[in-house]
Amino acid sequence: MPSRMATKRDYYEVLGVNRDASAEEITKAYRKLVMQYHPDRNSGDKDAEGKFKEVAEAHEVLRDPEKRRRYDTHGHEGLHGVEMPNFGGFADILRDFFFGGGGRGGPQTGQDLEVDLELDLAEAAKGGTRTLDVRRADVCSKCHGSGCAEGSKRQTCRTCNGHGVVLQSGGFFNIRVRRECPTCHGEGTVITNPCKACRGNGLVVAEASVTVNVPAGVDSGQCLPVRGEGHAGGPGVARGDLLVVFHIRKHPLFERHRDDLVCQAFISFPQAALGCSIDIPTVDGQKLSHTLPRGIQSHEVVTIPGQGMPNLRTGRRGHLHVQVVIETPRQPTKRQEELLRELAEMEDRNVSPQRKSWLDKIKQFFTDAPKK
To answer: pTM for this one?
Structure first.
């Protein structure tokens, strides 16, 4: 008969992370899955309940450096004899999730909540406000965060007699050490009649709308903390922060290089030779008229100051760099071909200094080349 250890899924697979994942990546995956399998979203679903506990167990091991080392070296068997929390109830897991898994004896700040916000380049340049719909922990309105059903209250823990710690013996010298009580998790009291609305956790998952001030010039990967708009931390405890991570969509015309923007302008050969006025778009949706000099070469760059992205710190705008591209007609008309042939004949008779120098170098190259 296979052992219980052998039937367990790989903890990295449970959380959906690579084996070299950082602590931050592990915690982020854990929070996402806890919300996915939350009992309020999966009422009566036994499969979701099992996955909920499985995710909590995987996180408990992988977030602890020593437990993770033992697991990476020996697998599930390496955790034999290691003290593990009791994942028997939703309340314990949710308390660990919303309060960060630290000591439970005193007030703590609620967990931070991370959300992604996608913007186009024009929105990033302009800034402004956006309203985000988020799912976060709120204090239960039925029990006001106590976790107890109406008319009841927490009772003294019988395991530790209200002390929050227990004495355990172990080791070669049978030394007695104080450890956090496994029943009340150090609080000294337990809930015997839990609130049905929050399952004794004191917190529920709720929808909320949060207005976010988008700073002008924000770039992909930058994070904006919105203070006090994250998960609730319990009665009288400050909320965590809402961490808004920005993602800027690719623009069809502009490429961004920090505060500068780059685009291309396509012109014809006559326009390049004679000079011309062209319309240049800006990220703000405006149109600028700019005069190109006579004889401009393909891929030369024209710089328009102050038409790039705003700098987040100073507000000063970068530059717009316009790369001029000279287009050659693929299928010239008969008249165009006549004119081009006439121009070619003229150029053969009146070779420019630059072209003459290039032709002389080519001629010298073939003259000096060894004969086969």
So the answer is: 0.62
pLDDT digits (tens, 9 = 90+) for 194-247: 998 888 888 888 899 999 999 999 999 899 999 999 998 877 788 889 999 999
Superfamily of domain 1-88 in CATH is DnaJ domain (1.10.287.110)
Each domain of the chain, given as residue ranges in start order, spans: 1-88, 255-366
How does strand 155-156 pair with strand 203-214?
Answer: unpaired
Confidence class for position 105, pLDDT limits 50, 70, 90 = very low
Whether residue 308 contacts residue 260, with contact meaning beta carbons closer than 8 Å, is answered with: yes
Provide the strand spans (E) within the chain: 113-119, 128-139, 155-156, 165-170, 175-180, 189-190, 203-214, 223-226, 242-248, 255-257, 260-268, 276-281, 287-292, 301-304, 320-327
Residue with tokens 């080791």: 171
CATH for 255-366 (1.10.287.1770, 3.40.50.10420, 2.60.260.20, 3.40.50.720): 2.60.260.20
- Is pLDDT of 56 > 90? no
Report percent pLDDT > 70 for the chain: 79
